[in-house]
Request: fold
Amino acid sequence: MALVMSSGGLAATRGGHQESERSFFCRICQRAERGVWVPAGWYLLERAPGGKGRHIRLGLYCSVACLVRAGEMLEAGAAEHAARMDLPTEEDRRRERARVTDIAQTLLSGGLTIRQAAESLNVETFTLKTWRRKRASRSARPRWWRARRGRQAGWVRGSVIR
Reply:
């Protein structure tokens, strides 16, 4: 699920043609303002559940400080919900992803293709590729280093200079 955040102006409203004044309320500091549109500088936080469904409004916040505090409260609520529903925590998910990626790397070094490794691990091929790419990017050297090493080896724009 993606989080959508907008700050004030037309982007913060879904209706488009609001004409009556209403009140806007910060859930953290209880600040209230009245107006036709979301006040300038306020943050509207929504969760996009995926697909073409409507976004779920998580709150309206008057400042970045309130938004940060709300994020901490939302994380705590999500962890509490996961515990109550016996769902894996975010740390458990990271650990499982790392375990699957390590096993996949072993399978790939043994001669299997990425598709065969993904099938044997019951993971989508695209998902496994994404996990491997993210893990490699965390441990890889910076882009400028790779480019410099490539030039030293004789590679220029994908061709070898001989």
The CA atoms of residues 8 and 41 lie 6 Å apart. The radius of gyration is 24 Å.
